[in-house]
Amino acid sequence: MIALSPFLYFVDPILRGPTVGCMLMCCAAALIGVIVFLRKQSLLAESLSHASYPGVIVGVSVAGAFYFNEQQEGIVTLFILLGAFVSAFIGLWAIHFLEHRLKIRPDAALCFILSTFFGIGLTLASHVQFEYPLFYRQVQGYLFGQAATMTDFHIAIYAILTFIVITTILFLYKELQVISFDREWAKTIGLNTRYVDIICFVLIVLAIVIGIRSVGVVLMSAMLIAPASAARQFSNKLYIIFPLAAFFGLISGYYGNYLSFEGSLPTGPMIVMVASAICIFALFFAPERGLLLRLLRIAKFRYRCLCENLLKEIWRHGPDKTITFDQIIQYQAVSSFYIRWVLAQLVHNGWLEEPASNTYKLTHDGQLWAAKIVRLHRLWEVYLADYIGVGVERVHRNAEEMEHIITPEIEEELTLLLKDPKRDPHHQPIPPKEDL
Amino acid sequence: MSPYAGTNFLEFFLVLFSRIKLFLSGQPVELATDEIQILVLAGVAASSALVGTFLILKRMTMLANSLSHTILVGIVIAYIITFQNFHSIDITTMLVASVVMGILTAFLTEFLTKTARLQEDASTGLVFTSLFALGIILVTLLTRNAHIGTEVVMGNVDALHRDDCLLVYAILLLNLFLFLLFFKEYKITSFDPALARSLGISTLFFNYLLMVQVSATCIGAFRAVGVLMVLALITGPPLIARFYTHNLKTLLLLATTIGILASLIGVALSRHLLSLYGIALTTGGIVVCVISFIFILSLTTKLRSRI
Predict the structure, then answer these.
(1) Would the N or C end of chain A have less CB density within 10 A of its end CB?
(2) What whole-number distance in Å separates Cα of residue A128 and Cα of residue A134?
């Protein structure tokens, strides 16, 4: 295949159909995906996308029965969309019936409807293969998505549907927000949750019906899940998540189509691969919530705790004393290699000095820091013993954690509340604030 | 020429019985294609029903859904390793692939939920769709033929071979063996995880073991009914059986019987449609239709008896 410039993908009369079509579909799916994600219904979307498959086949058969031929693709597409919409709704009703009337657990109900509808769809498909062989190729495209044969007419249909999705979300933005985050409160302020729920279901089915042409019924749920999950990693705010998810959807639609065209691979899997790559990247590297940065933050905190514990240990022997490495590691649970490295860092940063090798002594700054930690530790012990009523013998362990967490503001409040105590519950002196 | 050619639904069973009688009386009988289909489908249905009963009791069917998708990658990798085409089957490689994929899927889903803190439904959905997409791409790249992708999803009963029976029954035996061996453990972990913990039975271990069994079942089924329709065989019969009984042993037996019965009826029905109306439908799909029909039938009788 010839490598084409990205711009050409939007202008070329043959290429622009698939490109714009995929992007529109993925955009609509990503927007609805946010709703699905917040309502924790990803697996429902999975079932419904499979449940739409028999509708696709029935649509084709009906179109075939009315003697439309494959040249009138527009009308056939309309039949397919209608069929998919109806059968996904029947699937939704069936799941609801199984769950609420028969008390079948949600996971089993979803799985059963998914597989039986899909099985019925495949049986019908084998009939279509026999009866209308020309349509069959087109129908197979709906399994894994086939964008290549989309025309301007398709773009028009999908643009209208996408427009409907976007305007509905804009109109119902407030209601969606309230219902997704606090259902009970939504009820108390008199919102008709049932009504919004129904609209949500219609939107989900609509997004699936729009999407199955480019992504395919088998993988459709990925396009609802992946962009929304990725967008959620970057923000807590709904008004940011929606556009961000749509943006991720657009990117995956464009590149998925591009890669599938260049490598002549099925469109759906390529779009899904791009979307999941974005999502996995976001899961690892997003600021705040990303796994890597979270681990980094944890490691940094642990490092600081260890620093403070070591300084405290040296201070315990006496602020001006010089002590050996063996005395330091006596009560530490961390490996001695690591402690040696941390000590070297502390010396380097001017908290400690090393008069002779393997012996350590606090500098003036180091003494202040250690005294501050000890003060926090003992203040907290006083608080626990006097105010919470924890037994004196049990306060130490908790204070050992809290001393790393207490902020200057909390320290201020504790000092005020406890009237600047001089002794902790174990009758050890608390380093006074003025000295620090 | 198949002895079943041109038979209708009842004649099919007549021919089948007469041939079984012939076989039992010691005369050499060559297996016809329809009989291979019945054998394979019944084996798959029995395995699925057994595994499915515990999946439903443990509320883990959505993990089975994940597995049925991800197993495709396992199949492709097994194919790369053995450098054989899909028509000859190396049982060991297939089983190893299924074990690896079963554990990998469960592990990845758990990793995304626990470590990457993605909500559970989203991580389940993300893992299996991505792996399935990867599988489809690999298949297309390897074979340059998108039809194999469809065949893995739809299954093709007509391409079944006598060797398929071996794989299917090896898996059925494995399932039977494990369930007989660990029946008590499975029962306790399904119904009362707290009791299991206090007795020192690891629920986690048996969940993983069940996952492995599910993926073995899927891999045994993919040539006959495809990786997705096997889900109907897994969830359908136990759900139907639950209309009639709440006793675990009866449930297992009934579910297995329903599964086998459905596959028998499915093959006969498929032959019936072909000989009388000249309509060739996929047999795997018909089996699924039969199961949903039985489900609706049991449902209506149950609802009526309630009134």
Answers:
(1) N
(2) 9
